[in-house]
Specification:
Blueprint lengths: L2 E3 L17 E6 L5 H9 L9 E3 L5 E3 L14 E2 L2 E2 L5 E6 L13 H18 L6 E3 H4 L13 H6 L8 H4 L10 H13 L10 H15 L10 H12 L2
Parallel strand pairs: 1-4, 2-7, 2-8, 3-7
Antiparallel strand pairs: 3-4, 5-6
The protein binds zinc ion.
Length: 240
């Protein structure tokens, strides 16, 4: 695969140890075009970057060496990790995003992404479950890569978690209906999600539920914990 280098100075100067790299975070740019995205990711005053940018034709642009820290995740949490930049590799996919005109990701773009993911997974021994979306680690602020991103397809190649209908069979609902919400959020903690507590507001909880559904029930993104939503969370929480 041909990778074009177009280095950005928006990164750490020091290199990190390979063992610090544990996650791959997938984003969309939310910008009008690749040209505009590239400009922003290389502009010193924007203070943002990513290791890779993949355009709509599947062209892969390397902006920051993977051993250096790129500035893509911002304020974020997953399990005990805070501000995941130092422990992750960030990949941006060109897409106008929810605020402009959210597009389907192209097949060429996804093919490019999977090639890069395969390479990174092998090189840094990244676990399948550690391929995440920006909205997973910053659910109150971010929607990317969003409900059009085909996590199911990627999971089949070993990038990210998924479930099958069969996996959900036999999972039981808590005895009391009102316990569903509590059990759901307990599951989310076990999966890795943060930014909520039992006493969080309805608004905060709603955003976290939406982030979860954007990822795992992309055809019904809303803030309702249905029986299926609950079952998916239970299955994922029990996965080793
Ligand atoms: Zn992002």
């Amino acid at each position: 695969m041909k990778i074009i280098k177009s280095l950005s100075l928006n990164s750490s100067k020091k290199v990190r140890k390979s063992s610090q790299i544990k996650y791959v975070i997938i984003h969309y740019t939310g910008m009008q075009s690749t040209r505009v995205s590239l400009k922003r990711l290389r502009n010193l005053s924007s203070k943002v970057s990513a290791h890779y940018l993949i355009d709509r034709n599947g062209k892969v642009i390397n902006l920051v060496e993977t051993k250096k820290i790129a500035w893509h995740a911002g304020k974020s949490k997953w399990f005990g990790f805070n501000n995941l930049n130092k422990n992750s590799i960030g990949i941006e996919l060109q897409n106008k995003g929810h605020n402009l005109n959210y597009q389907n990701f192209t097949l060429k773009q996804l093919a490019g992404l999977m090639k890069i993911c395969k390479k990174l997974k092998k090189k840094y021994k990244i676990k399948s479950k550690n391929f995440l979306g920006h909205s997973d680690i910053a659910p109150l602020r971010k929607k990317d890569p969003g409900e059009k991103f085909p996590w199911k397809k990627l999971s089949k190649k070993g990038f990210g978690e998924w479930y099958s209908e069969k996996d959900l069979k036999g999972i039981e609902e808590p005895d009391e209906k009102k316990d569903r919400e509590r059990a759901f959020f307990t599951n989310l903690k076990k999966i890795g999600y943060r930014y909520f507590t039992p006493s969080s507001s309805k608004k905060v909880k709603g955003l976290v539920i939406k982030a979860f559904k954007r990822r795992f029930e992309p055809k019904s993104v809303n803030d309702k914990i249905t029986l299926k939503t609950f079952k998916i969370s239970s299955f994922l929480a029990k996965k080793p």
